[in-house]
Structure formats: C-alpha cells, structure tokens
Amino acid sequence: MPMRVCAARRLEGLAVFTVFTLLFGALGYWVVCVLHVVPFEALDRLTRATMVWHNDPPKLAAIGFAFPPLITVVLLPFVLVGSMGSSLVALPVCSAIFGGITMVALHRVLARAEVGPARFLLLLLIAANPLIAFAAATGGGDIVGIALITVAMGALVAWYATVDTRYLVSGGLAFAMACVASYHFIGWLLLGAGVVGVTLMRHRADEGEIEGSLVMFLTPGVFVLALWALFNAIVIGDPLSWLTDSATTTVNAASSSAISTDVAGVAEQTFRLVLAGAPIALVVLPALVACAVLQRNELAAWLALFGAFAVVTPAVLALTRDDVSQIALREALPILVVALVGIAWLHQSLPGARTLVAALAGIGLLVSIPITWNALDTYRYQSMEQAFHRAISTGEDQEGTRSRGGLEVGVLSERAMAEFLKTDGRRTLADNAQTFGVIALTGDPRQFLDRADAGDDRWRAAAARPPADVRYFLFAKNAPSDELRRLYPQAARGNDPRFLTVFDTPRYRLVAVPAGLGRTSRIAAVRAGETSARPTTRSPEGP
Amino acid sequence: MATEDQIAEALEVQQRSGGRIGEILVHSGVISEQALLAVLSEHFDVQHVDLTGFQADPAIAERIPEPLARTLGIVPVAATDGVLFVAVAERLDPVTRDQLRADTGSELRELLATRSSIDELLQRIYGERYVRDARLGLVERNPQDSAHEVLSGGQKFAFGALLVLILVALVLAPLATLIALTGACSVFYLAVSLYRFRLAYLALGHKLEIEVTDEELAALDEHDLPVYTLLLPLYHEANIVDRLTAGIDALDYPRTKLDVKLLCEADDTETIEAIRALALPPHYQLLVVPDAEPKTKPKACNYGLLHARGDYVVIYDGEDRPDPDQLKKAVVAFAKSGDDVTCIQAKLNFFNRDQNLLTRWFAIEYAMHFDLVLPGLDTDGVPIPLGGTSNHFVTARLRELGAWDPFNVTEDADLGVRLHKAGFATSVMDSTTLEEANSEIGNWIRQRSRWCKGYFQTWLVHMRHPFRLLGQLGLKSFLSFNLVVGGAFVFLLNPIFWALTTVFVVTQASQIQALFPGFVFYAAASMLFVGNFTFLYMNLAGALQRGYFDLAKYALLSPVYWGLMSWAAWKGAIQLVTKPFYWEKTVHGLDRRDGD
C-alpha cells in the first residue's frame, strides 16, 4: 500500500480517536466528577489500581483474582499520579480512551467495508447511542472489553477478506486481551478459531496451514488464560475459581424475583434486552442469516452466529445461576458490536445495495437512540444507567439519589470519610474489599492496613491484635461482608464502649482502636464487644 | 575441439548475452583456457607462455604498479634492454599500450597467458601485500571503526569507573544497588522485546522488501548486465566444493560476466586440492589467502575483494543455495533503488529445516529475523545488521568504506552499521538463499557463540564514542542500534532472571523478593510475561510470514531454544575476553539426507 495512503489512513484514525475521546471524556467528566454518577465497580477498580502503585508496599496482587484483571490493569497509567484517582478524573479519562479506541476500530471496519464518507455520520450515530456513551463516559470496565472485541472482530473480518497473517495476529491478541477484560469473550475466541479453521478448510488449505494459523490465533488467548490460571493457583490455590466467582459489575437484583427464571421468562427478558439495548440487531442479525443463505456468504453466517452467541450468553447465565439480573442492560453492548460489524459486512457483501444498506443503517442507528435512551431509565436490570439518564436529562447532581433498583448514587460518604482521614493522617485498618471508595478518594492507600497489604491471614492477625501504629478501624456499616465488621460487629454499629467513634457517615464508621486491644484473645475481645451495653459516640455524625 | 552444436549453442549465448565466442566456449567448459590461448596466439601471431610455477622477479613485476596490473590482468615477467615482456590475458588496446610504454619507459612485448595463470602469478608476487591490506586496511584507514582492540582507552576507563562505582555502591547500599541493577536490566529487556515486536508487526503481512517481478527479469538485456563478483570463503570444506560449484552453475547469469572467487586459507590444502581437481572454468578463481592472523572469514573476503572485477559483489557461504535468479534480481533491485542504496540483503533460510527440532527452531528464528525484523528495520530507515551471506554490494563503495573488519567475528552486522554511518542505505530484497541449518547442538553453540561475541564486539566498537555515534546516526537509529545490536545482551540476562524466578518459586526466599520492590517488580514481571511472550509470538509470526505453517507448533517450544542461545551468549561473552578474534568455525555438511 502506498505510504501516502497509509499516512492518510493513520491521520484519519487519529482524528476519529481524538474527537471521540474528547467527546466521551468531556461527557464523562461532567457526569462522574460534577454530577457524581460513579459506578461502584469502577470505584473498586480505581482503588485496586491505586493500591498497585501507591500501597505500602506496592501490590500487584491488589488487582484481585476474581474480576477480569485487564479492566483494572488499564487504569494503572491513569492513577500513577494519585490525585488523578482521588479526584475520580482517571475514570472518565480511561473509559473515554477506550471509547475512542472502539470508535477507531469501528471506523476501520466501515472503511474496509468501503463505506464512504457516510461512515462518519454512522460513527456519530453510534457514539450518540446512550449505552455506548454511558460505558465510554462513566469509567465502567465494560468499555474495555467492548473496545477489544471490536478490534478483534474487525481483524477477524479483515482476515477473512484478505487471509493476511497480520490480522490473525492482531485478532488473536485482541481476543486474548478481551478474554481478560470479560470472561464471556472466551467463547468468542473459540468461535473466532472456528472461523479461522473452517474458512481455511473451505479454501482447501493444507493441514499444516490450518494448524499453523490456529496456533497463531489461539496462542495469545491460551497464554493469557493459562497465566491467569497459574496466578490464581499460586495465590489463592484454585486455578479456575475466577470462572465461577466472577461478576464484573454491580447490578441491581432487587426486582429480579418479579421475573421467572424458567426458559420462557428468560427468553422474554432476553428479547427485552435486545430491544432495549441493541434494537438494530433485530434487523441486522436476520439480514446476516438471509445473506448467508441467499449468497452462501460464510462470514455472514459466522457473524450471525456471533450475534446469537452474544444474545444467548446472558440468558444461559441467568438460567444456570437462577438469576435473571444476569440479563443486565450492559449485556446488550456485545450484541450491538456484532450488529455494527454485521452492517459493515452486509455493505461489503451487497455491492448493488450499498447506498440502501448505509441509509438503513443510519436510520436504524438513529431510531435506536431514543429507544435505548428510554431503556436506560426503564430497563429493569442495570447498574447506574438510570442515574446517568437522570443526570443528563436534568443536569442535576445525583449525589444521594438512587438509581433503578435501589443502588445508591454518589460518593459523598466516601468523600467525607476520605477527607477526614487525609486531614487526620493516622493509620487505619480496613477491609479494602468494602471500603474501597474511601481508600480511593484519599488517594493514599499507604494510610490503610488492608487485606491487600500482606494477605488475609496477616490482616486478620493484625485486626485481632492491631500493631501500635494502627489508630483506627474503618467499617462499612451497610456491608455484611465487611470482614472487620464481622470481627467487631458491635463496634461497627457503634455499640462497643471500647471503640470510640471518631467519625461517622451514612455508610462508614471510623472508630479509635483502644490501647491494648488484642492482649486478650480475639474471641474474648469480640465477646467483650458483644456484651457491651450502650453505644458511646463522641464525634459528631458525619454528613 | 568444439562440435558444431556446441558452437551453435555458444553463438546463441553470444547473441543473448554478448561476449567473445572463445570466452563463452571456455566458460562453458567446451574448450580449455590453454586451447583458446593457442588459437588466439596463432590468430594474433603473438607468442603465448605458460606461467604455471613461474617465479617472477618482483623488481620487474613492480615496473607496472600492482593495482594497474591487477585491474588490467597483466604482469611484467621479463625485461631486456629497453623491452618489457608483459604477460597479458588479452591484447592491450593502443591507448593503454602507449600509456604503459610512457610509464615504464620501455617498449612492451605482449605474451599471451591465461587469465587464471596471471592472477595466480600476481598472488605469488603480491600475496603478502594483499594479505596485509586485507588485515589492516580498515585499521589504517579508520581505526575507530575496527575491532582490533576490544575496548578503547576511553571505554576501559568508563567501564572501569562504572565497575568501581557499582562495587562501592554494593558495599554502601547493597540492596538498593542490586534493586537498581535489576530494575535497569528489566527495563532494557522490556524495551528490546517491545521494539522487536514493533518491527515484526510493521513487516507482518506486508512486502516491505524490494520485489522484482518476473516481467522485470524478462525485460533485462543480458548484454547490459554488469560483471558480478561472488566471494566464497571456504575453510576445511573440501566435501562440499562440488555441491557449491553446482549451485553457482545453476545461477541464471551469463558466465562470462561471473567472477567467482573461491577463497581458501593457505593451510587448508585439502580444500585447495579439491578445487584444483575440478579444473573449473576461468570465471572461477581460486584465491589462496596467505597464512596470517586473524584467520577469519572477513579477512578472506577482503582478500577476495581486492581481486574483484565485478561492479557488484556478493558473499555466499559454501553450503548456500541462492535462488537461481538472485543475481539478476539484485541488479534490478539496485536499479530500482535510490542512489544511496549500497547493499541489498537477500533473505536467508534453510534447506534442511525439517531435519530435527534444532533446525526447525533455527528456521523459525531466521524467518522471524529475515522476513520480519530486517524488513522492519529497512522500512524504519535504521541500521540493518547484515546477515552473514547473500549481501550484495556496490563494489566501489564497499572498497571506499574499507570493506569488512577482519577482527570482528560478525563482520556482516558491523558492516551494516558502518554503511549506515557513512550515509549509505541497505535494503532487503525478496529473494532467498537457503543455507544448511546447524543440526548438532555443539556445532550450533559454536556458531551462535561467535555471533553473540560479534554482536558484543560490534556494539563496543560503535559505542566507543556514544555521542559521536548519536550525531552520526540520529536518535532513532541510535536507539535502534542499541536495541537490536545491544539487544544481544538480553541473552546474558535470561539465565539470571530465570534462575531468580525458579529459586523464588521453589524457596519463596525473601532476599529475592527484596530485589524486586514495587516498580522493579512490575518491570520484571512485564519482562517475564510480556517479553517472553513477545519473542515466542514473533517466532510464530515469522514462521507464518514465510509460509512455514508446519513449523508453527514448534515455535511454542522456543523458550528451550532461548536457553541454548543464552548458553551460547555466555560462551561468546567469555570468549570476548579470552579469545576476542577467534573464529568459531561452523562445520557444514551435517545434513544427513543431503549427504545421502
């Protein structure tokens, strides 16, 4: 390819990246930092990433072993400067960059499919999709996987069209990284391998070429998953626990009982999901099937299969986990990606109807915007989408409100506690899995003695007999799984006379560690706490 | 005598490629040089002489300056009052004759002799001078670019000071010093890995090398083809001489325009005899390099270059099998390239890659290096460390540059850097030479230890004046040089880090953990996982780029191969101190099937 064309293409890609990253970044800053719509899973990742750099000692293991690690790893560069994390700016910046990458990948897919200047209009309509805007602006981890899977799908389509090894490499790498951004994408990797193997077989490639190409394609995925399993085996003793323990996003499940988890109920909810989050897929996927049948277009069939897989995955999870909330609104994003790549492939495959395909795609994307916008407000299973919807609609600070299903919005409690601790500066023992918001907003995890510092066993020992420099315990009052709260339940409630409440907020309680705690056994200490009569709160209640 | 068919065939060749009919008959082995000489002698009515074993009087020989005698293919053999008897391979033109007469102050009497016998006589007379030029040409012309001393004075001081500094730091703050060293090594390793990945990805799926189409080859007029010199250094390789000449004969290039130099060391009588026994046509010339240290391939090549008659010159190893059209492709490639292109590197790979696991790994590594890394470097416009063979040069520029450094055991890589420093460019062309892959571990280690030692040498030579080098190369090429040539140092680091990792996993030793605090650990972990994966995946990509799909699965075992590389690197590093100029000779002809 002439160098001039390459340079122009790069420039175009750079322009697309810059424009959309800035747009998503600006929106994200407004929504997250000004209107305080902060998904809690994003806050958790932010804390983990902060700990990787700023803990004492810095701790790679703070990334955790259940969640897909990449969604935390990608935040690392943005929290190298602690204030980027504590001000929350890192969240929209990071997700906006991945939003930009998603748009560049889609732009490349459309350009390769010979969609003319209309592709820029299509890109604008895609970026205006409220679900994509939410993911790309609010710092959630979903956009990381979406960006990678878009790159991967683009590479796979490009490989199918050119059988160019380069795309096998970029596709294999992108699928591999997508697998550790969302474990759902492991299935996509296997489907991709199916595309490679079957395509080569259909082209009568020899056995060696099929084998070599599959090795090339699958090696990155196998490598990263094997490595992840190895880390899990070494650190937590179970190489595959991440497959069963993971859940990437906090989703409200308050009303999940309203829907039956039988096949019919799940199917109905799945249909609602597609209709709400990726309505265009309802047209594109059948069109791909028709194209596959009428044109004997193999890739159209494969894309339809990817689409079906994306639709079926949350449904299967809902059935196997007996939990309809698995069919969350964010699960529509991968379906949307397949639909968009499908549009490009239909455009390429139907030379006589390209204008029609582009026009229909534009109309479909335009119509999708109000449908999905409405879904953010009304769809039953979601994270902070409703708060996002409300924030944009009203332009009002969402601090203290609740999103659909009861999720609390805002970080006022965390902010107040963090400010107090920052000013006070004394060492505090806390369960970081529940108090991550406070830790993140202090921007200085060194102040905390937490489970990430030296592992759970040492932390428990320290909780039972705190070292001399630990002056406070921090409890997450509303989190039953807070390990510290389990050890000192009365203190967490403010009922233990030995523990003076120093600072209190609706979600957190900070208590002073009494001198000599732990000289008696832990059990004795706990019992002493259990039998204490009345709370003694000297400090004013927090906001 | 020649048959009618042979003459008809020779006429056809003449019509296609030009040249004299007699020469064509000699070069194609139809008649001997002596027979042609007799005919020419009769035709021109000029006496002919047999110079075999003739010992010329140097004082007479030197009446015509050696460079002129070598260029013209003449040598004064006797003198009487006012007459100088000059052996000539072909009649002198009147202008040259008059010039020589004026220069020597004597009448010239021409005596016809075969070109090969004149060349041999020149070697007998000037052999010592030639070998001196071959040894010391670069040292005298450009000592700062020669590896004749391992470390320059400045480097001795700088490295000494650094060593003292590290030792002092180790005494004062041992842990902090070790952490700093570990961190620096990790960052360097990671940078090398990522840079190589970038180069490979740049080339992957592209044809960055110069492509020469069949149409372009067909459009070549053989009359216009230049004389092409082939340098073939041989040492203890009598067993492959016939295979070698068969390979050269298979080249699609007019034989009258070939100038093949078979370069043998004087003590290698076996190979010399084997070549003589073949009674090769005159486009082959046996050059026996007089015994002198260092006994290296570049010294032999320099010796050959002194006698090169071609506009272009290429090096092949004894076991090489270049694509038959490679010389023509090189001519077209030079014509298509910019004026600054002085060297065109053909790709290398192996004909015996399926022999065993080692040859498969070797083939994968070569595919990665020649099909991805070198084209990537070419595209980036940064120095290309040349491969050992199949590099085609513009002869005059190569001479101007001082040719190869005989003290550098990877003279090829070094020359690539010197070309870049001099402002000349190197390109890669889409033509392959198949070599014999080392199939025995011991032999492979020897060869690889030499390569590693040579890369260390090359890095040290060019980093004698880092800031000057930065000025000569520019920042981009400077960094590339340090990551590609200096990248050989990572093979020294590998076993250290592997050992630390293994010991830590087994013992959980806190002392090792202490070496990797926070940021250092992150860099080291990235090096371990990203770096190793990058190298592995690049090998895989190289195999696929070359179309060696069947080798892909063997690339997954590459880490074992790196273990061998590290072994060789350490051997090379130790030898750099103990025997810096020693040439670890690779034994060829180990391919059993080929031998069969």
Describe the overall structure.
- The complex is a heterodimer of chains A (543) and B (596).
- Chain A is mainly alpha-helical and 543 residues long.
- Chain A has a domain at 412-530.
- Helix content of chain A is 64%, strand content 4%.
- Chain A has helices spanning 3-34, 40-54, 70-73, 82-86, 90-112, 118-127, 130-137, 142-162, 165-179, 185-202, 207-236, 241-245, 263-277, 281-295, 298-321, 332-349, 354-378, 385-394, 412-424, 432-442, 451-454, 456-464, 483-487, 489-493, 522-530, and strands spanning 427-430, 448-449, 470-476, 501-504, 508-512.
- Chain A has a five-stranded mixed beta sheet, with helices on both faces.
- In chain A, strand 1 (427-430), helix 20 and strand 2 form a beta-alpha-beta unit.
- The longest helix of chain A is centred in the N-terminal third of the chain and has 32 residues, at 3-34.
- Residues 528-543 of chain A have low confidence and may be disordered.
- With 596 residues, chain B is of the alpha/beta class.
- Chain B has a domain at 4-124: Type II secretion system, protein E, N-terminal domain (GMP Synthetase, Chain A, domain 3).
- Chain B is 57% helix and 12% strand.
- Chain B contains 26 helices and eleven strands.
- In chain B, the strands form two sheets. Chain B has an eight-stranded mixed beta sheet, sandwiched between helices. A three-stranded mixed beta sheet of chain B has the order 1-2-3.
- In chain B, strand 1 and strand 2 form a beta hairpin.
- In chain B, helix 8 crosses helix 9, helix 17 (411-421) packs parallel to helix 18 (441-462) and helix 19 packs across helix 20 (475-484).
- Chain B is elongated.
- At the A-B interface, helix 9 and helix 11 of A face helix 23 and helix 24 of B.
- Chain A: It is found in: Cell membrane.
- Chain A: It is a multi-pass membrane protein.
- Chain A: The chain crosses the membrane at residues 12-40, 60-81, 88-106, 118-136, 143-161, 173-201, 213-235, 273-295, 301-320, 332-350, 356-376.
- Chain A: This is Glycosyltransferase RgtA/B/C/D-like domain-containing protein.
- Chain A: Keywords: Cell membrane, Glycosyltransferase, Membrane, Transferase, Transmembrane, Transmembrane helix.
